[in-house]
Write a structure and sequence with these properties.
mainly alpha; 65% helix
């Protein structure tokens, strides 16, 4: 009993070619770039708009080597859902902060935690 191996043709999710995919991707990048200003202000995030845009660019650059059309489509769809959740404020502030956990403000907050009253108290009692 031998099995016959066949190549399965997989249908794309959004776009059928890389050329059309490039347009969809560029529109998504532009929409997300424009939305970050309003998102940072509406969620009262303690992240500068420049830092937020830099973090967004890092996320896009991290996925630049993906060439599979279905995978790119899936990432764009997930990104659009995230964008919509942030725009309509369905996601809470801490969910938005999860995207910016490496930014300067978060590092400053971690550094400031070492200087709380209790830390000073414990150091003085030693």
């Amino acid at each position: 009993m031998s099995r016959q191996v066949t190549n399965r043709i997989v249908r794309p999710i959004l776009s059928k070619s890389l050329k059309k995919q490039g347009k969809v991707f560029c529109h998504f990048y532009r929409d997300f770039y424009r939305e970050l200003d309003w998102t940072c202000r509406s969620h009262l995030l303690n992240v500068s708009i420049a830092a937020a845009r830099q973090k967004m660019k890092e996320q896009f650059v991290r996925n630049k080597n993906i060439t599979d059309v279905r995978m790119i489509d899936m990432l764009v769809v997930k990104g659009r859902m995230t964008l919509e959740e942030m725009h309509h404020q369905w996601s809470q502030d801490y969910n938005c902060y999860a995207y910016f956990d490496d930014t300067i403000t978060q590092k400053e907050k971690v550094a400031e935690k070492g200087h709380t009253f209790m830390d000073k108290f414990y150091k003085s009692s030693d």
